Amino acid sequence: MSSTKSNSKEIKRIAVLTSGGDAPGMNAAIRSVARSCAYYKIQCFGVKRGYQGLISGDLTRLGPRSVNNIINKGGTILKSARSNEFRTKEGRKKAFEVLKENEIDALVVIGGDGSFTGGLIFQKEFGVPVVGIPGTIDNDIYGTSHTLGYDTALNTVVEAVDKIRDTAISHNRLFFVEVMGRDAGHIALNTGIGAGAEEILIPEEDMGLERLLDSLKRSKNSGKLSSIVMVAEGDKIGKNVFELAEYIEENLPDYEVRVSVLGHMQRGGAPTCFDRVLASRMGLKAVESLRDGISANMIGISDGKMVLTPLNKAIKGESAIDRELIRVSEIMRL
Ligand code: F6P
Questions:
Q1: pLDDT greater than 50 at residue 2
Q2: Residue 266 Cα, ligand 1 centroid: separation in angstroms?
Q3: Which residues approach ligand 1 with their CB closer than 6 A?
Q4: Which among 30, 282, 23, 269 has a CA at the least distance from the CA of 138?
Q5: How far is the CA of 137 from the centre of ligand 1 (A)?
Q6: Whose CA is nearest to atom 10 of ligand 1?
Q7: pTM for the predicted model, two decimal places
Q8: pLDDT above 60 for 5
Q9: How confident is the model at residue 334 (pLDDT cuts 50, 70, 90)?
Q10: How many domains does the chain divide into?
C-alpha cells in the first residue's frame, strides 16, 4: 500500500500517539496535531504510552488548550512505550476495537521506523488510515533530511563535548565520547565536526584499530596534547568504547585516556527552534494529509519543503551518511 487515498470517509476524529524512543519536539508535534485538528473542526484524542495505551484504551481528549505551554518541553506528554502485544494480531485487534468504540477515523504515529512498521501493518489489517511523523534523535529514517529531535540532540552533544574538551585540555587527555544513534552515525559525524573531534568512529565507515592508532599518533606528533574521539554507539570497530580506550592507552602510553558515555541525556532537553518549527509543520501536514484521504505515508522535510513518503519505503529505505561530511571531517582533523 503506498500513498493511495485510503478512503473517502470524512475524517472527524483523529488519535495521535508517540512511540519508541522519545525525542525533543514530540510535544511540539502533539501540539500541532491538536491545534490543526481544532482548526479543521476535527476532534483530537491523545493516546497514552504508545500502542500499549491504544490497546488498553488509555485515550484523552486533546483540545487546543490541552497543549498549552508544551512546545518548549522535551519528552512527550503522552508518554511513549514499546509494545510487544501490538506485535500480535490479537493486540492489534484490541487496538482497533478501542478506535471503533471511540469512533476514531485515523491515527497519527509520532516515532521511528519500528513504530511505522506497526502502524502500516495496522492499517493494512484494519483499514485505519495512518500517517507517520518521524520522531527520533537518530535521524535514521529514509524520506526526510531531519527527524524530530535530531537537531536538538546535535546541539546537546556539542555543548557536552565542549565541556569535556575543557577538562581534556587541562589534563592533556584523550577522551572517547560515546553518542547515541543505535546503528546510524549521523549524530557522531555531525557533532564530531561541530565539536572539532580528532577522530569520528561510525558504523558506516569501518576505520579499523590500526588506522585509528596511526591517526592518533599523527595528531600527537603534530603537537596535539589532547584529543576527542567521537564514537557512535553502533560503531563496528569491534570493541566497546571502554575496551577501545584500554587498547589505545596500552598502545599510546603517552596519552592519558578517559571515556564519557553521554547516554540518555541526548534524548532530553528543550527542543531547538528548528525542531519546534519542524514539528509544527509536520503536525499540520499530517492532519491535512488525512483530511485529503492520504494515508500509509510519512511526513518528511526535503530541501526545506514538506514531502510525503510511503511508509513501506520510509521503513525499508536507508538514511545514507553524507560522504561530503566524512571528507570535511578528515580535512578538519589535520
Ligand atoms: O532510537 C533512539 C535511541 O535513543 C537510540 O539512539 C538508542 O540506541 C536507543 O534509543 C536507546 O533505547 P532505550 O531508550 O530503549 O534504551
A1: no
A2: 10
A3: 21, 112, 136-138, 180-182, 233, 267
A4: 23
A5: 9
A6: 21
A7: 0.95
A8: no
A9: confident
A10: 2
Residue 138 catalytic? yes
CA distances from 252 to 31, 177, 295 (A): 52, 18, 56
Does 6 reside within a domain?
no
247 and 101 assigned to the same domain: no
Mean pLDDT over all residues of the chain? 94
Same domain, 122 and 259: no
Task: Give the full edge-to-edge strand order of the sheet including 130-134.
Answer: 59-61, 43-47, 13-18, 106-111, 130-134, 297-302, 305-310
Name the closest-CA residue to atom 12, ligand 1: 21
The answer to whether the Cα torsion of 92, 98, 101, 103 is positive or negative is negative
For the residues 107-115, what does the mean pLDDT come to? 97
What span, in angstroms and rounded, lies between the C-alpha atoms of 107 and 125?
14
Using one digit for the tens of pLDDT, what is the confidence trace for 53-90?
999 999 999 999 999 999 999 999 999 998 999 999 99
Domain range holding 185? 151-267
Q: Is residue 159 domain-shared with residue 257, that is, in the same domain?
A: yes
The pick from 137, 179, 191 for probing ligand 1's pocket by mutation, whose C-beta has the most ligand atoms within 8 angstroms, reads 137
Does residue 280 share a domain with residue 142? yes
